[in-house]
Amino acid sequence: MSQLENAIAILLQTFDDYAGKEGKKDTLTKREVKTLLEKELLLQEAKNPGEVDKLMKKLDLDGDSEVNFNEFMTLVGCLACFIHFSTI
Question: What sequence ranges are listed for the domain EF-hand (predicted)?
Answer without folding.
Answer: 47-82
